[in-house]
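Page 47, continued from p. 46.
Same chain as before, 444 aa.
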Amino acid sequence: MGRANHVRPVGNKWEQLGKGGRPLWKVGAPLAGCGPSPPDPGDQTAATPGAGGPPGAVLTGRARAASHRKVGPGPPGPDWCVPDTDRTEAVAAQALVDLPAQPAGTPWPGDRWPEGEPPPGVDLDRLLDQVCEDDAPLSSTFAAVVVHHGRLVAERYQGQLEGFGRPPVDIGPETRLLSWSMAKSMLQAVVATLVAEGRLSLDGPAPVPEWSAAGDPRRAITLDHLLSMRDGLDFAEDYVDARTSDVIEMLFGAGRPDTAHCAADRALAAVPGERFNYSSGTTNIISGIVAREVGPGEPYRRLLTERLLGPIGMASATATFDDAGTWVASSFVHATARDFARFGLLYLRGGRWNGRRVVPAGWVDFARRPRSVDPASGALYGAHWWVTDDGHGTFRCSGYEGQSIMVCPALDLVVVRLGKTPADRYPELAQWRADVVAAFASVR
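Result:
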């Protein structure tokens, strides 16, 4: 087992080639020869949604999968297509699991979390050992936090953070750790407030300057398409091959100074609304829309603090902005594990926090209703949140190298896990999350 710095069980046809030889779709071309990709066995045990979205939401009809860039080595192609219509519609037709209220007598987290004990029969020490062992498939875990019925019942920290020009530091409860793509789900909360105020629209053409020319087919893209990752843009979410990766170029290459423009400059690869393609570029396009609406840089940072981070006490959270003043919401928030758990609790409570509505009504349900199946993993996706078909209504934020905030309504449970797990071990990590849910479900 790895050294624990802090352990406390507290109370259909390809028509042309794009950049790097990647296949692009001709708009309107039929799918041909698509076969299902190997499912992620862990995520097959994961997610629930239901009906009804925020006022004004226009849900896409029958979902059709399209080309998907594999994350990691290997060529893209029709074997990465999977028809998602039947499964998505079947799960979406289910009633959403009710979101539980904060239990009577349990204070909301203030400067400190209220503490509690795990239920009798739930062996959290064993489960945390599994995710924290250095020689286990899930290594390396930096932090794990478990919140049950609104109380912190277990947490564990281990390892060190390397720094440029400074000695490594031990990871503990006050250590800010990187969200990676969990930040996408936080942006969804910010967008919700602006749509609720009438400052942004889900249904009309997304206000993106790069798409404003008359006759530009990207003018058909809506904010709803962007939130559900069904915008149809050609964007490769590949963290391995920089020669064909759009996300590496955007975050660390020529696109870094203005991430929203870099992403918005991509061509269409499919009819908007017709396919799912998970894309960090899509999130930064949305963030650029927010920046132009509220003002880039400091006004945007102030909005993020006043509307989201401040009301729920995420005092440790810092968001990274690019040179254009856009929050790089695809990837970059640093916060403590406990503060990431606050965000999970906010969504578990339906967007309310200590008597205040932080996320507008209907938007948590909008987030956790599945709209698509990811062709690469078989996992379900809602609106900037992943959803899990496990009978418990579980949904989660997810980030590169296995970051996650798992929210389980039926069990009144939030589980945060932060660390570094390679992509080929994601099924084991998904199984660990399912095992945690099963342990709490067994003692309901």
